[in-house]
């Protein structure tokens, strides 16, 4: 299968831990959804409970600019 | 927690048409695009204003380029033109009109623009011929050459020099030499020494696509022909020609004739699509107060020197209407006159698919109505933007993000923070005090003092209603929400026995009146009537009065505030743009939420008018001026000797409203309000507080995230910092906080952020 396009990738590199499950977050598949549009991304995810982490830089940077672009569609 | 439905899919393809006629009639009110008076009077439509600007800048080359657009032989036209433009120059009304023709002469002499023969030009396919000589024939040949037609001139004169001499005998020697050089530089083929009779004409005719002639030759060849002067053509003979008078007349005739050649070459009816030709009137508005130098620079015998031409051109006030752009920071920001901006915003609403690039400007107007007052034609940009917002809301294309915070704030004002009670001891009251949501948010102590004063001094009882008038939803273009707010207030007023409303804010007063509240007075009117409260300090200091945009067109309120200020001892310093012409502080129309940058410029523009401390009668104005560091007072603070102090942040604005409600319930109505106490201690770093205010994140949001964390235990531990990160979806956004924890019950928030997108785990 062809490599799937991801709009954004962050590898937690073992620096983040899920408090509840006590395991390190791993790079995992996630999806942003907004106004009926979806974007596959790779973000730090807890392999046990599925907590997806959206770091501040991502929220204020890429995510905010895509939000703004979609809002004006 | 209140919620507002996010807009649906971006893949909804529909629009609600605003009638183009309505928009065009609105747009047409703006005279910005009208030509200046001088150009309107010029049948050749010279851009006089731009040419004079270039000349005033000493850029004679550019000035000549502009002049050559209408004059293939600039010295001929500038020496011979009758200059109707000069008579129409607006400066005639205050002094000497501009010496436009003398400047043109200087431009023609100093512009030094000669096309050097070999400039590569693609020429048109259609061949043209001009039979005969004289000024019209020469100028027509020049026009055709400018339009890149191959031109052949057939004349009886012996050479181009004699041809030029005959056309423009009035040229002095130096001008003649220059124009001869110019003529020789043009790609005009001369066939000299011809005998221009019918046989010769018939013989040449087949080689050309369009034939033209001087009026003299036309009369000789076709004595019975009838030229149509508007078109310069004899239709039966298909000969481009006709009589002209004077130098300007010949130039105008040549211009019309050249357009007719265009149409014939394209095999079109020469009558079609000619646009507006010749001199017109202009509806432009010019502010003559800008005119300073009222006397013409005297013209020496040989014409202006370069310096003199620059000086005279510099007297031009560059007529154009900028009344609204001068006064409105929003229009200044977008650097567009409203006619153009309105058309673009209209087009924005009609986009079915694709980017709505004008959303931001559409939402940045404060709907304040100042433009309508300063515009000589009453252009109503507020209506344009407000209609456009409503239109986008109705087709579900309006983003919620720019207005959501404000709309939630309205729901909060009319929800958790709402209060409606008759005065203690009264079953029903004659009055109800409605201070407005911003007053309760920004100056709760002032609201309380005013209410207690009204209760003490007005007979018949004064009820209190803390809430929002609905202006927020109205401004957002969400008319259904606005109507819900109005209906809610109506019901609450009815429960109080429909008392007379005493509004504390002119914008509330306006909103409530427009939506059916019949009996309403401003608190300023009441205070004028019953007198200032006892013990009020006389101030004896100069202050600048800022009129609220909510009071635009309300002379009675403006006057009443001035009298109140005077009886407080305040010496009001005069500011430009006061009264009906007052600008908006940036709060109006939700500009401050949708576009903080433009709103900030609006605030600055307000403050530029005076260095004095500001006094206002709308709490939002008071708040925004104080935020910019200006000493700023609401008139009620002066009346009651209260001090609302430093401007509150967004969370404090909510807390102030809740606390005002709670303390009044407790102390006046002896009700024990439910007080929610956090079962833990919550601290903030300064950085977190500042960040939350900037990012529109409320204390309430943070508490909700933390409560969620305490229930679920879900968080991320950041290895390096040892901080925890938790999140929660609240309404249409996900909020994140980064915090530390001491034991089980003490938390310190370090950072907070949010995003509107939903993030979900993906399988696979
Ligand atoms: S004031 Fe503004 S809106 Fe009115 S005519 Fe002039 S440029 Fe146009
Ligand atoms: S002041 Fe300048 S722009 Fe205005 S009418 Fe006179 S020449 Fe034209
Ligand atoms: S902000 Fe006020 S003055 Fe400016 S365009 Fe809008 S309504 Fe007119
Ligand atoms: Zn987990």
Give descriptors for this structure.
heterodimer, A: 73 residues, alpha+beta, Ubiquitin-like (UB roll), two-stranded antiparallel ribbon, 1 helix, 22% helix, 29% strand, B: 764 residues, alpha/beta, FAD/NAD(P)-binding domain, 6-stranded mixed β-sheet, 5-stranded mixed β-sheet, 21 strands, binds iron/sulfur cluster, binds zinc ion
Q: Could you explain how this protein is built, in words?
A:
The complex is a heterodimer of chains A (73) and B (764). Chain A is an alpha+beta fold. Chain A contains 1 helix and 3 strands. Chain A has one helix at residues 56-71; strands at 16-18, 26-34, 37-45. Chain A is elongated. In chain B, 48% of the residues are buried. By secondary structure, chain B is α/β, with parallel strands linked by helices. Chain B contains 35 helices and 21 strands. At the A-B interface, β1, β2, β3 and α1 of A face β17, β18, β19, β20 and β21 of B. β2 (26-34) of chain A pairs antiparallel with β21 (758-761) of chain B. The structure holds iron/sulfur cluster (3 copies) and zinc ion (ZN). One iron/sulfur cluster binds next to α2 and α3 of chain B.
Short description:
With 73 residues, chain A is α+β, with helices and mostly antiparallel strands.
Itemize the secondary structure elements and their pairings.
The complex is a heterodimer of chains A (73) and B (764).
Chain A: E1 16-18, E2 26-34, E3 37-45, H1 56-71
Antiparallel strand pairs in A: 2-3
Chain B: H1 20-27, H2 37-41, H3 48-56, H4 60-68, H5 74-80, H6 84-88, H7 100-110, E1 128-131, H8 135-146, E2 151-154, H9 160-167, H10 173-185, E3 188-191, H11 198-204, E4 210-213, H12 215-221, E5 233-234, E6 239-240, H13 246-265, H14 306-313, H15 323-327, H16 329-334, H17 338-349, H18 359-364, H19 370-374, H20 381-394, H21 401-413, E7 419-421, E8 431-434, H22 437-442, H23 444-457, E9 462-466, H24 471-475, H25 479-495, E10 500-503, H26 506-514, E11 520-522, H27 523-530, E12 542-546, H28 555-567, E13 571-573, H29 591-594, H30 596-607, E14 614-616, H31 619-627, E15 632-634, H32 635-640, H33 650-667, E16 681-684, H34 686-694, H35 699-712, E17 716-718, E18 724-730, E19 733-742, E20 746-755, E21 758-761
Parallel strand pairs in B: 1-2, 1-4, 2-3, 4-6, 8-9, 8-10, 10-11, 12-13, 12-14, 14-15, 16-20
Antiparallel strand pairs in B: 5-6, 7-9, 17-18, 18-19, 19-20
Helix pairs in contact in B: 1-17, 3-4, 3-14, 4-7, 5-7, 7-14, 8-9, 8-13, 9-10, 17-20, 27-28
């Amino acid at each position: 299968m062809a490599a799937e396009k991801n709009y954004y990738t962050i590898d937690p590199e073992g620096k983040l831990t899920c408090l509840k499950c006590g395991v390190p977050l791993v790079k995992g598949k996630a999806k942003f959804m907004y106004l009926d549009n979806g974007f596959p991304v790779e973000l730090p995810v807890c392999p046990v409970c599925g907590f997806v982490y959206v770091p501040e830089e991502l929220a204020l940077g890429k995510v905010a600019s895509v939000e703004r672009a979609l809002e004006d569609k | 927690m209140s919620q507002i439905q996010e807009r649906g899919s971006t893949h909804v393809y529909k629009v609600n048409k605003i009638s183009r006629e309505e928009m065009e009639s609105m747009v047409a009110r703006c005279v910005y695009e009208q030509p200046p008076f001088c150009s309107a009077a010029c049948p050749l439509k010279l851009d006089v204003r731009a040419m004079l600007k270039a000349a005033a800048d000493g850029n004679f080359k550019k000035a000549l380029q502009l002049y050559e657009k209408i004059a293939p032989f600039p010295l001929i036209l500038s020496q011979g033109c009758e200059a109707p433009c000069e008579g129409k120059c607006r400066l005639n009304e205050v002094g000497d009109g501009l010496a436009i023709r003398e400047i043109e002469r200087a431009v023609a002499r100093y512009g030094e623009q000669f096309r050097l023969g070999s400039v590569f030009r693609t020429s048109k396919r259609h061949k043209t011929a001009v039979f005969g000589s004289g000024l019209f024939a020469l100028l027509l040949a020049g026009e055709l050459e400018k339009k890149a037609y191959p031109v052949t001139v057939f004349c009886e004169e012996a050479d181009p020099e004699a041809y030029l001499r005959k056309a423009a005998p009035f040229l002095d020697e130096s001008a003649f030499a220059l124009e001869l050089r110019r003529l020789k530089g043009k790609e005009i083929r001369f066939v000299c020494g011809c005998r221009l009779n019918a046989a010769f004409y018939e013989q040449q005719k087949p080689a050309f696509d369009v034939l033209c002639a001087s009026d003299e030759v036309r009369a000789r060849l076709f004595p019975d022909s009838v030229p149509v002067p508007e078109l310069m053509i004899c239709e039966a003979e298909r000969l481009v020609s006709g009589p002209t008078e004077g130098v300007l007349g010949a130039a105008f005739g040549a211009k019309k004739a050249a357009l007719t050649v265009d149409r014939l070459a394209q095999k079109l009816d020469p009558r079609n699509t000619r646009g507006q030709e010749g001199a017109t009137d202009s509806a432009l508005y010019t502010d003559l107060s800008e005119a300073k130098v009222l006397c013409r620079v005297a013209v020496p015998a040989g014409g202006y020197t370069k310096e003199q031409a620059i000086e005279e051109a510099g007297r031009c006030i560059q007529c154009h209407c900028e009344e609204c752009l001068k006064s409105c920071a929003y229009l200044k920001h977008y650097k567009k006159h409203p006619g153009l901006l309105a058309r673009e915003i209209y087009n924005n609403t009609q986009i079915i698919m694709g980017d709505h690039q004008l959303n931001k400007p559409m939402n940045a107007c404060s709907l304040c109505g100042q433009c309508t007052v300063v515009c000589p034609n009453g252009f109503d940009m507020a209506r344009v933007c407000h209609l456009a917002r409503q239109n986008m809301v109705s087709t579900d294309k309006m983003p919620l993000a720019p207005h959501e915070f404000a709309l939630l704030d309205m729901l909060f004002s009319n929800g958790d923070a709402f209060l409606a009670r008759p005065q203690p001891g009264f079953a029903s009251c004659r009055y109800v005090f409605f201070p407005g949501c911003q007053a309760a948010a920004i100056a709760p102590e002032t609201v309380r003092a005013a209410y207690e004063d009204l209760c003490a001094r007005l007979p018949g009882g004064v009820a209190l209603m803390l809430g929002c008038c609905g202006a927020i939803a109205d401004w957002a273009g969400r008319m259904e929400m606005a109507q819900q707010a109005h209906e809610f207030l109506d019901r609450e007023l009815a429960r109080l026995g429909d008392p007379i409303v005493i509004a504390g804010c002119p914008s509330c007063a306006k909103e409530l009146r427009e939506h059916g509240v019949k009996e309403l007075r401003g608190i300023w009117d009441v205070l004028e009537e019953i007198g200032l409260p006892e013990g009020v300090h006389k101030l004896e200091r100069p202050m600048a009065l800022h009129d609220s945009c909510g009071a635009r067109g309300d002379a009675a309120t403006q006057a009443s505030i001035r009298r109140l200020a005077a009886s407080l001892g305040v010496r009001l310093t005069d500011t430009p743009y006061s009264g009906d012409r007052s600008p908006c502080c940036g709060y109006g129309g939700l500009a401050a939420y949708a576009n903080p940058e433009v709103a900030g410029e609006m605030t600055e523009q307000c403050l530029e008018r005076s260095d004095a401390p500001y006094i206002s009668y709308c709490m939002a104005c008071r708040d925004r001026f104080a935020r910019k560091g200006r000493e700023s007072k609401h008139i009620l603070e002066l009346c009651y000797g209260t001090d609302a102090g430093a401007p509150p942040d967004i969370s404090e604005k909510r807390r102030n409203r809740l606390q005002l409600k709670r303390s009044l319930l407790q102390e006046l109505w002896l009700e024990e309000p439910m007080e929610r106490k956090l079962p833990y201690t919550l601290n903030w770093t300064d950085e977190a507080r500042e960040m939350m205010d900037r990012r529109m994140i409320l204390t309430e949001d943070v508490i909700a995230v933390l409560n969620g964390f305490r229930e679920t235990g879900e968080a991320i531990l950041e290895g390096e910092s040892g901080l925890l990160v938790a999140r929660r979806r609240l309404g249409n956004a996900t909020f994140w906080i980064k915090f530390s924890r001491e034991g089980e019950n003490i938390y310190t928030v370090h950072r907070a952020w949010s995003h509107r997108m939903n993030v979900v785990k993906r399988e696979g």
